């Protein structure tokens, strides 16, 4: 297999001991990070401003809501340098509570809060980026965190462009990599139709992994209702897996897990998860860790479970970091063994989990198995994007242009 640059960006877990309090609308929340308040800002220094934030929150609850007054208090706190005030102001602008809705201003204030370490603000900006609502660019207001996001966006764009150029020349491996980018939405809006077309082109050249993935997409698009189609997909993925294609190994593990196209076999599912994990697939390592935790296809073994989940976490896989961070945090309350033995690492895993949670929308398997409803949502978004944004690259693919 020709090694492919991984242009999918995954990240992490669940927020560290944050207090979620109702904020600028019924469903919106201000997440107050205790570590930020007590550490980076200092409770004594921030006490007055934080009191303004809490007073503002009171105006968002109960029968006598006054969002305008809440916003005034949030803004007062933000002007004093309160990170939580900045976050509350950002949410107010984003949802239009107490102030006219203004997404540009929302981003300005989310950025301020993000630079001060507010995990929820970072998470919101990353979600906007993943959804294509935000294009990070360098400017004179950018801090270290923002520059990191700008660099990520630039790297993804460059990887997509280089892969696009190679695919346009008929390189089958590049066509597969580009198809995965379209399928998962990295460096480009998600486009299942374009992904399928590229898989078909590569498969037509005899690219084994593409043959597996396009057959799997076809079976999924038919809601797994055609036995012959499932069997064909499984057979092609067995062939690709035996040729050491890690994506095919991961897909094949789910066939055995669910009994699609092959008899249900947890032992085979775990075997292929391990094989993919040994080739560096973080999601496969996490799945194998879960197998060991629950005794699915392998003997139940807490030590092995920890080894594989930790391997996935060290590679930056969000669910794995969430899992270990939560286990470590809960151990102090339940008396169970702390799997990390490092409070700072546990907090780091938890914070990264919140910040990068939306990156799970880029994982291969959920996009490969997307429901018809999810596909229709993506088609609507893609249609809007094509109408509003002029394409920067000459189109190739399913539309025949």
Outline the structure in words:
It is a single chain. The chain is built from 19 helices and two strands. It is globular and about 65 Å long. The protein has a two-stranded antiparallel ribbon. Residues 1-46 and 388-401 have low confidence and may be disordered. It starts with 17 loop residues before the first strand and ends in a 13-residue tail after the last helix. It has 401 residues and is mainly alpha-helical. The longest helix is centred in the middle third of the chain and has 25 residues, at 144-168. It has helices spanning 34-41, 43-58, 67-79, 83-95, 103-115, 119-130, 144-168, 172-184, 192-204, 208-221, 227-242, 246-258, 266-278, 282-294, 302-314, 318-334, 343-355, 364-368, 372-388, and strands spanning 18-22, 29-33. A hairpin with a 6-residue loop joins strand 1 and strand 2 (29-33). The protein folds into two domains: 18-141, Alpha Horseshoe (Serine Threonine Protein Phosphatase 5, Tetratricopeptide repeat); 152-385, Tetratricopeptide repeat domain (Serine Threonine Protein Phosphatase 5, Tetratricopeptide repeat). Residues 1-28 form the signal peptide. It comes from Paraburkholderia nemoris. InterPro entries: ISR_Activator, Sel1-like, TPR-like_helical_dom_sf. Keywords: Signal. This is Sel1 repeat family protein.
CATH class of the largest domain: Mainly Alpha
SSE-based structural type: mainly alpha
CATH superfamily of the largest domain: Tetratricopeptide repeat domain
Largest beta-sheet details = 2 strands, antiparallel
Question: Proportion of β residues?
Answer: under 5%
Rounded to an integer in angstroms, the radius of gyration calculated over CA atoms is 23 Å
Instruction: Find the count of extended strands (DSSP E, 2+ residues).
Output: 2
Shape by Cα distribution: globular
Query: Low-confidence spans: pLDDT under 50, at least 5 residues?
Result: 1-46, 388-401
Annotated CATH topology of the largest domain: Serine Threonine Protein Phosphatase 5, Tetratricopeptide repeat
Helix and strand run: EEHHHHHHHHHHHHHHHHHHH
Question: What strand order characterises the main sheet?
Answer: 1-2
Count of discrete structural domains = 2
> Helical stretch count?
19
């Amino acid at each position: 297999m020709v090694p492919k640059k991984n242009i999918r960006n995954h990240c992490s877990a669940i927020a560290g001991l944050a207090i979620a309090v109702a904020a600028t609308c019924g469903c919106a929340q201000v997440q107050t990070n205790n570590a930020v308040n007590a550490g980076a800002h200092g409770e004594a220094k921030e006490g007055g401003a934080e009191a303004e934030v809490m007073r503002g929150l009171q105006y968002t609850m109960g029968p006598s809501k006054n969002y305008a007054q809440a916003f005034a208090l949030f803004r007062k706190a933000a002007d004093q340098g309160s990170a939580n005030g900045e976050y509350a102001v950002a949410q107010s602008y984003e949802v239009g509570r107490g102030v006219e809705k203004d997404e540009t201003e929302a981003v300005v204030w989310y950025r301020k809060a993000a630079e001060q370490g507010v995990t929820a603000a970072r998470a919101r900006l990353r979600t906007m980026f993943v959804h294509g609502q935000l294009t990070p660019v360098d400017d004179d207001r950018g801090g270290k965190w923002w520059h990191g996001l700008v660099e990520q966006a630039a790297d993804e764009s460059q990887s997509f462009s280089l892969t696009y150029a190679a695919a346009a020349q008929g390189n089958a491996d590049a066509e597969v990599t580009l198809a995965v980018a379209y399928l998962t939405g990295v460096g480009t809006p998600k486009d299942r139709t374009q992904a399928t077309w590229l898989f078909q082109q590569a498969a037509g050249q005899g690219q084994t992994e593409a043959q597996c993935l396009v057959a799997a997409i076809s079976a999924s698009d038919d809601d797994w209702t055609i036995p012959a189609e499932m069997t064909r997909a499984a057979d092609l993925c067995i062939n690709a897996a035996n040729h050491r294609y890690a994506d095919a190994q991961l897909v094949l593990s789910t066939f055995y897990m669910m009994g699609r196209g092959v008899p249900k076999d947890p032992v085979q599912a775990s075997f292929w998860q391990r094989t993919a994990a040994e080739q560096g697939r973080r999601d496969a390592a996490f799945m194998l860790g879960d197998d060991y935790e629950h005794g699915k296809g392998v003997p139940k073994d807490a030590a092995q479970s920890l080894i594989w989940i930790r391997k996935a976490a060290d590679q930056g896989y969000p669910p794995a970091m969430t899992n270990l961070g939560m286990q470590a945090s809960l151990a102090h309350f339940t008396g169970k063994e702390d799997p990390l033995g490092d409070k700072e690492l546990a907090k780091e895993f938890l914070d990264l989990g919140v910040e990068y949670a939306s990156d799970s929308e880029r994982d291969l398997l959920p996009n490969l198995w997307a429901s018809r409803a999810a596909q229709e949502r993506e088609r609507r978004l893609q249609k809007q994007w094509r109408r509003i944004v002029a394409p920067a690259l000459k189109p190739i693919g399913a539309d025949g242009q």
